[in-house]
Amino acid sequence: MRAELKLSSLAIMVTAFIGSVNCTAQAATDPAILEQAIERQEAQLQELKQQLSELAAQQKQQQVQQTDYQTKTSVAVDRVETAADKLSKFSFESYGTAVYTSDEYFDNVQDTTPERRNRFDLERVVTEFGYQFTDAWSMEVEIEYEHGGTGVALEYDGFDEFGEFETEVEAGGEVMIEKAELRYRPSKAFGIKFGNIHVPIGLTSMLHKPNQYLTVMRHRSEAAMIPAVWNENGIGIYGEMADFHYQAQIISGLNSEYFRTYDWAASGHQKRFEHVNGDDLAFAGRLDYGNFKKGSAVGVAYYYGNTSGNRHKSNKINVDGTVSIVSVAAAYVEGPWILRGQYLYGTLSDSDAITQANKTTPGLRPGNFAQLGSQSQAFFVEAGIDLNHFTSLPLTVFANIDYSNPLMEVETGTATQRFENTWTSVGINYFPIPQIVIKAEAGLQQVAVASIPDTNFFALGVGYQFSL
Fold it and tell me: What is the rounded CA–CA span in Å between residue 388 and residue 437?
């Protein structure tokens, strides 16, 4: 606007200057008048030059300002695009479960008269963070919060001697890293991952979200033999070719100091301490045809590793304590039909030597039931029908059987049957929306010991899962 005013003033002055020239021509016959006219014209010309100079400076400043504005706008756009690009590489997922259980339980392993107890449990809340650095490089961190928090817990352990209360800091049990891995996958057929990775033994390591299993809680049979959602530090390769999926890993091994009668090698997972002993490593491998997470599949897995080298009291034993586990699993998910099953078989060498060492290690308190199985087995079968294929109700009904025997065989003596359990149940899964499931389950627990009566249980649960 100021430039337009300047131009208008300049035009007026030019017109006046031309008029002055005409007048000067008319007065050219008078020398005095001519001299005065020339002086006026020179003054007007000087003023005209000054205004032209100012106008040129203003135009130049406007051009600089416009260029600066365009540059800042371009930088801002680039920053927005960069932030959006980074955000698109970030992923976040979460799932969780809360349960109510009403079951009959035994005060300790010597009791034969059960009592009923009702319990509530914020079972777990899990957060998963991922970032895709490049097309080939990515990372994922999974953090699990169990039972509502962290801190010092007072627990009752009926499977320890005659039943006792234990006060302990729940390090590794209440808030834990379930996964922290870096992945390099240049192609679909081959990838490598390292860090804290899931061990591909047992279906729970793959199907651990509440919409991926039918029971209210994860399968008891697997938890009575191997670590739940088993994770170890190590390195592994993986990939898929056609419909085949494979994994092979070298990972940290188990610690036989914490093997127990009632859950075989499950408690040997090294999650209690800041540092994981790695004197004994292990191998884990898996081959699947199909995809268990998406539907139908069959698969076989194998684990092998020594355990005595990872004991903290390494001078208590001089044997290997080798654990080997074979897992065979299958799933058929087609239309309304859901059918899954798994069989686990494991062996433990030197089980008597480990039993004796654990009995005499101060602080472990294995009690009267320190006996370890040289062989262990477990299986489950779950079958369901999705009624939403026949009605408008998003409801799945199911039946399930779990079986575990951590003392299938022992090296010497006779194995107790106190820990040979069978759980049978029926229940429903209701999905008000796809991301939420409400579950109910009722069943019967049977112990192989004839003098111990069968007990019944009932459970309610709610779970969620979502991803961004």
Answer: 14
Token pair listed for 459: 């459970």
Q: How many CB atoms lie under 10 A from the CB of residue 395?
A: 15
Confidence label for 112 from pLDDT (cuts 50, 70 and 90)? confident
Contacts of 220 (CB under 8 A, 6+ apart): 402, 404, 421, 423
What is the distance of C-alpha 444 from the center of its chain? 33
Residues with Cβ within 8 Å of 242's Cβ and at least 6 positions away in sequence, in order, are none
CB count, 10 Å around CB of 374? Answer: 20
Report the alpha-carbon distance of residue 250 to residue 383 in Å, rounded. 34
Backbone dihedral angles phi then psi of residue 36, each to the nearest 5 degrees: -65, -40
- The CA radius of gyration of the chain, in Å to the nearest whole number, is 39
Residue with tokens 């930088």: 75
Percent pLDDT > 70 in the chain is 85
The residue assigned the tokens 């100021």 is: 2
**Stated pTM of the model:** 0.79
Give the residue among 215, 146, 174, 190 at the shortest CA–CA distance from 461: 215
**What 3-state DSSP class applies to 443?**
strand
Tell how strand 337-348 and strand 297-305 pair up.
Answer: unpaired
Distance from C-alpha of 349 to C-alpha of 180, rounded to nearest angstrom: 31
- Whether 346 and 326 have beta carbons less than 8 Å apart is answered as yes
